[in-house]
Amino acid sequence: MSLLPNKPIAYHTSLDDRRFEEFVKDLYHQDIQEGLFGNKFDAITLLDGIKEQGRDCVLHKKGKNVGVIQCKRYKSSLNKPESSREIIKFCLYSIIYPEFISDIDSFEYHFVCSSYFNNPTALFLQNFSAEILQEKDLEGWINQVIQENKTLANIDLTKIKSPLYEILSNINIIPIIGTDLDRKLSLAHNKNLYAEYFEVKTVIDTTELTPITEALNNLQKPKLIVSVSAIPSCMVISSQLLLSSKKTKDEQL
After folding, report:
1. Closest Cα to residue 45, out of 11, 68, 15, 16?
2. Of 46, 91, 101, 131, which one is least surrounded by beta carbons within 10 A?
3. What's the whole-number average pLDDT of the chain?
4. What is the predicted pLDDT for the residue at 2?
5. Using alpha carbons only, what angle is made at residue 183 by residues 76 and 84, rounded to the nearest 5 degrees?
6. In which residue ranges of the chain is pLDDT below 50?
7. pTM for the whole thing?
């Protein structure tokens, strides 16, 4: 899909799910190389897309898993239940695979949405660790995630509730929306990704060219120019006789 300059990118139509994940990975990789995350991360891995277990990319620091990125390519906004279930899914898998989180106190979960989170969800995610355990629908969300994922089917919530709640109440959620991606992409070191992932359409504003166009059009209009040398001599003589005749009559009067 062609992109127009200075317009928000419609990621849901420009990229499919996998290409969106690859784009996010490359964007983060270049930001890491440029030092935009300080010393938080030194590498990123894009997972194969088959058994992601609630994560699309893993953020590393000295070989340890210090963060994950979960990508969602949506046209519409993400709501609170959808967002919460995605985070819960990763937290459940991190109990089965403890190496997913090296240190919960410094761990970051980057939730990248191609569109945006609706207002209640955005506010909720900003205070996720402080508010999640107060949610009346929390157990319902957990049970739904377990039912929808076969590899979680053997989990007994009564046995893992305590470690799960510990993770949920400490995990740091970083929400990223489409306009955030646009800003990252506009940075000088990321502009190479335009050509790799998008087709950019150049649009010229012709408003300032209007006076020039009008002037050129006027120059092209045919003008009637009469040359005396081009008038037949008989017409010149006739006109002189008419003038002479008129002068004689005036003198007689």
Report:
1. 68
2. 131
3. 86
4. 43
5. 40
6. 1-4, 235-237, 239, 241-243, 248, 253
7. 0.78
